[in-house]
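User: Hello, can you help with two protein structures?

Assistant: Certainly.
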Amino acid sequence: MAVRPQRERALTFFLVPIIVVAVLVLDGVTFRNSFQLEKLREQSVIEATLLLANERADRLEKRIIDQDTAVGSTIDVIHRDQFGAEWAAVAPLQTPTVRAVLLIDLSSPYREVVAVASRSPGPEDLAFRRLLIRSMLRDMKLDEEPRTQLRHLHESYEGTSYLVSYWQREDRGRRYLVVTWHDIGAIIHKIFPALYGVPDRQSRVNVVDAEGRIVYGPPLSRGQLTLGRQFETTLYKWRLNVTMTAAKELAAAVSRRRVLEMVLVGLSGLVVIAGLAVVLVAAARERKLSNLKSDFVANVSHELKTPLSLVRMFGELLCSGRVDNDAKRRQYLQIIVHEAERLGNLIENVLDFAKVERGKAAYVFAQADVADVVLRATEACRVRAADEQIELDVAVDRELRPMNLDERAIEVAIINLVDNALKYAPEGKRIRVSAMRSGSGVEFRVSDEGPGIPVEDRKRIFDRFVRGSQAAERRVRGSGIGLALVKHIAEAHGGEAWVEPGAPRGSSFVFSVRSRPASAESAPTEAHA
């Protein structure tokens, strides 16, 4: 029989770590796959958003460059008297954002503007010419090769943003610079709405300047994935921002799915681990209970054997006729009666506890005088207390009224507590039994002058089969069911049982009962353990 438990323990020792490791590995793989899917989803959204931003930015730059190309195809630097005439004829249709075209002689030391064509000549054109000569030319890349390449200048001057396109041409050994002045306002109010103003459920777009101020479009939500891209060649001081509105829904769906998967896997792991923990705890408790029951059987057997041996021994002495002293004969008879009473109390406790274990402990509640119950219980213990030279005091509150309770059960509880005090506190001189009103019920208290109960034993001393640490040290006989029975009786009466440290020494075992309705009188009640 001993081989099987060893095999079971060995199997449990190996299986439990394997199951725990398997669950942890499964959770780890699931979490990793979930995060990988999340990264792939984010990467796909980022790629889609970036592709859309590039496409939107390229469309604007292509629109501006197409206008520059149209201007370049119509400008004639040779016949200056006709400069810009052909362009002006097609300007409203082909170059809607070009406000003016200027020709500058770079070979001249003064770099003069030698020709101008404007869609709406006015003072602003003159101010632009001065700004061009004074400031813009210094910022242009005029000496970089190839000089005929189309370039753009996007800067702010005197608080105003300007966009100009420029390229160089040569005629008869002289260098000329063709400058196209784009109207920023026209770009914002005409080109941007045409390119970015079309309602789109998939994305939202805005354009911001170098300081992050919105030039065009609505504010974009910070909680959404937003990518920005600067215009490369034309409005390179500005940035195009794109938000995928569908990305939020996709991200929410993926996040919900990922969270659900992780929660399910986590719960499954917790369930498995909790199941293992429950099995291990139950097995440990079962082993502990089995050991306690074995100790209980041994203790009860010893408790039964001792009084039976004494009764038999003194009975044989009396029957043999060898005791011719009346005083000795009475002493032996008292011992027989005392041990028989102790044996009867032990049997009653065992029977009562067996009913509690089976959940069939029945209590008959009836109107009873609390003082009478306490006096009967203490009188049953007074002879033993006198034999051990311990004074048994009784104090009952005079204001206590009759109440519904099971008289026999309360007597058993008090007798058990007094018996407990006699066994564990023999060096004390007094045991005090009291019954006092407490709220709507009564508190029964048995106080002794013994060594007291250690703190670590107070919480578990009322558990079945459990005996205090002092029981083994002092070799005190007992079964470990007396206090458990007291606790059950108290709970069946709507109360509880506990132990308190005495003052200045000793212990006080207390149990309370609560008043029951009068309709419960004489009604047997089953209390399940």
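That covers the first. Now for the second protein you mentioned:
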Amino acid sequence: MKKKNKQEKAALIRLLGIMSSYKLHLILLFVCAIISSISSVLSTMYLGSALDTMLGKDNVDFRALSRIIIILAILFLSASLFQWFVSLISNYVSYHTAETLRKKMFAKFGKLPLSYFDRSAQGDMISRFTNDLDNVSDALSLSIVSLFMGIVIVISSLIIMLMLNVQLALTILLCTPLVFIAGFLISKFTRKTYITQQATVGNMSAFVSEMVGNQKLVKAFGYEDSSIVTFETINQSLFKTATRAQFASAIFNPITRFIDHISYLLVGLVGSLIAISSGATIGMISQFLIYSSQFAKPFNEISGIMSNIQTGIASLKRVFIVIDATEEKQEDGTVPDLKCVKGAVEFKNVDFSYTKGKPLIQNFNLKVAPGSTIAIVGSTGAGKTTLVNLLMRFYELNGGAIYVDGQDASQVTRDSLRRSFGMVLQDTWIFAGTIRENIAYGKPDATDEEVVAAAKAAHAHSFIRRMPNGYDSLLEQDGGNLSEGQKQLLTIARIMLTDPEMLILDEATSSIDTLTEIRIQKTFLAMMQGRTSFVIAHRLSTIASADMILVMDKGNVVETGNHNELLAAGGLYAQLYHSQFEPS
């Protein structure tokens, strides 16, 4: 618990550090809060004075009453106007603070290694970026107003009460510690509950995102009922956690109001005794009755937003967990770019494992001549895609080195290394935008002629031309209005446009019909001429013409050679090949 408290304090201190950028706004806010609060407190004093001008039916000091009414009108107007300024400035500060956090978090996404995303649920990450940041913004906006206005009201009303009557002021003060004690005990009880609540919200977002994004599979496997059961389990957990959190938080408001009512009654009782003994006026007693409510108002307001504050703190911690995550090692300006790429690649004594203590690739060695086509085959989990991930430095090696044209890939900038490769993956990625923008993603300054030429080369031009607005047709997110084959053709056109020095094709034609695949293969062969190409394929017929075939098993290369050599050897490649083309 102490560790969690320290984490919360550290998170709040960091938040204040971000808010320090808006010092002038906060100073202006405090000034407006002072004017608004003092106007409100003074209006109470003048209300009491107004009552004292009306001593009886024929005993009213109309001149004094008129003057007080004018003053009250000015004070009410001042209190309302500057209260509006306080709300306006607090919203500005809170929204801009949330904007800063959102920028930091989004920038962090680009600096995190792929391993972080592999072990994090996509829905939970989105929930942190949207729900949690919104909670922080809401809590900040509400608490700034309550804090600034509350401090001034408590101090100013206390000073005036002591000036008017010490006994009545002390009567009100006697009840104040009870409010602090109640607030401390309840916040201590609810802190853990709100943290659990936000974690459960993240789990639900992750599950719903998974189910919505894979509805075809859900329906195909008849998983609807099972998904509802799982959802109900998470939903019930959230319901119970949220109910406990809200119940505990809701108790605070009635408790503070109960204490407020006790204070109200005590003021009336003590005021009556003072009126009998020393002649306190009705106006003074009325003033203190109002002051007792004003003095307790900030505590009541804080109790009313306690759930927002607790949720905001829990969300803030979740946001900072992402912002503080270990980044991919950043490069300084001294790291050189990869230059004069011809396509010679060498893996030298490479070791790699995704999980410490569970080696996947050990002492792997391979030399690839420029312009060669290297096919990588093997059963699922053999390590084919891992080789590509290492080649692109999506993951760092545990040992050994990878050289591109004699240059250590770990000693050049990642950006220049990755730009030298063109990747077409099995999983397509289409963003919401026009077809033209999707094809030109890797080369935004491409001309219309270049975009069309790339689409024609990828055999995508014909279906694009049939779209309502051709290349200017808008695509839904993830290409929902395209078939899987059409999406794959666009990703192929995207790579053809960038014209990279080396290629990585990971099941690049897996979603395309056989006839189109044959045409695409011819286009690939033309594009691969003179370029070093790494081709991962399960359909072995597509890599028969490769210069070298690597057969992988459990992270190791167990066979190398061309298609005919490996068939003649009768090893694992031959088994895989015959299993695809010969009846069992």
